[in-house]
Amino acid sequence: MAPVRVARAFRLSILAASAALALGGCMQTVGPVAIAQPRADLDSMAYGQPYGAPQPVVVADGGGAINALRNSFASSPAPVPVGYAAPMAAPVRYDASYHLDAGDKLRVVVYGQEGLTNSYAIDAGGSITMPLIGAVPARGRTTAGLAGEIGARLRNGYIREPSVAVEIEAYRPFFILGEVSAPGQYPYVPSMTVESAVAIAGGFSPRAKRDVVTVTHTEAGGAMRAVVPLGTPLAPGDTVFVGERWF
Question: Among candidates 79, 123, 117, 89, which has minimal Cα distance to 104?
């Protein structure tokens, strides 16, 4: 009987040890549980967590597979911030202060009057010719001044309360002469400089003086001539003369 008792005691001790190991393994698999608020809205996706959103709640720090998964997410790189560029400013135009002259092409809009709304070129005499009111002087005026003059003439026996707008459709051309590949008359482009005018004319000739040029600018008070560097801005109607170098 003594050997039977020893064997039974040995089996009981083995069963107790196995149960302890199993329970220990189950307890090791219990890890922390993280609860985060859903962030499916577009603002959260673009900008990150919104102001005032509850922070994730982390329960019990321990080991196990869940803890390893939590650590792998924590070590992931942060989301790239989203940046938005400010809208580009519109190009600066000087139509409001620009003085009209022969060669400028205008768009005149008389609201509600399709027969008067049209494109008009300023002729050599400095005027535009419109139906009903005939020739209207435009030389030396601004677009606002010309619109006011047109409105005053239409109000005098034609339209009770005319609404008129004038804008520049095309500027008068500029001229380039002298030592360039193709001297002549060319359409003016806003923000043009002497250097770009030379490029439009095919560049300098082999004998050209390349550091300065002579520009003639005409205003209502008369013409003004100056020797200027290549970066000087040009105005519509200017004349550029490229001289010849002496050596």
Answer: 123
